[in-house]
Design goal:
Layout (H helix, E strand, L loop, with lengths): L8 E3 L9 E4 L3 E4 L13 E2 L11 E6 L1 H10 L11 E2 L2 E7 L13 E2 L6 H10 L1 H4 L2 E8 L2 E10 L6 E9 L8 E9 L1 E6 L3
Parallel strand pairs: 4-12
Antiparallel strand pairs: 1-5, 2-3, 6-7, 7-9, 8-12, 9-13, 10-11, 10-12
Length: 196
């Protein structure tokens, strides 16, 4: 099964790197030993995780923050890591089918799943348990990066206190208190395609 592990999947040998989260007065959170690579271009602090793909066992319930961010930024296939399928009509996405959740789904939906290439659609639809229950293939005309999903902190007497996971926009001042796990894009100008 590990041969089918998607590019963005975390592996058991990729344990979170030890770190101490501190409060930077007037700013938000930081690492006590922060380096330039700990933040993205927007100044957001990211979870530290070494990159050791295909070492150990795949953890299908977790994504690797750096590979997920790379795939989202560069519009790479979440399964193989190659270029996602792009046409004049937009970029291809494969998502759990939630058409019954709200009218015009998935228009204006925030996603943490990177796009996909055509050859990987069939593989992912069959191999991923969540997608076997119903998947939708979507052509997306525009998908701007809008924020991150991560662990939100608040100020505490002895240091920052984690308060829970959230999705937070880059233009929200509270993002200075987030430690990002995944990059978020918003899907716009969506067309649901025939899965075949």
């Amino acid at each position: 099964m590990s041969d089918l592990a998607p590019y963005i999947t975390a592996w058991s040998d990729e344990e979170d790197s030890p770190c101490t989260v501190v409060e930077r007065k007037g700013w938000g959170i930081a690492y006590a030993d922060e380096t330039l690579t700990d933040r993205d271009d927007g100044g957001v602090l990211w979870f530290r995780k070494p990159s050791r793909p295909r070492q150990g066992r795949p953890r299908f319930d977790q994504v690797h923050p750096l590979r997920q961010r790379r795939a989202m930024r560069r519009l790479l296939c979440q399964v193989c890591g190659g270029p996602a399928d792009v046409t004049d009509d937009g970029v291809l996405w494969l998502l759990k089918d939630h058409r019954t959740d709200w009218p015009r789904w998935p228009e204006n939906m925030a996603v943490t799943e990177p796009p996909i290439c055509v050859p990987c659609v069939r593989v992912a639809s069959r191999a991923c348990p969540a997608l076997r229950r119903g998947a939708a293939v979507i052509r997306v005309g525009s998908s701007p990066i809008v924020g991150v999903q991560g662990l939100l902190y608040r100020s505490g007497h002895a240091g920052p206190i984690p308060v829970g996971e959230t999705i937070i926009a880059y233009d929200d001042p509270g993002i200075r208190w987030a430690r990002a796990i995944t990059l978020v894009r918003e899907l716009r100008w969506c067309t649901i395609l025939d899965a075949d």
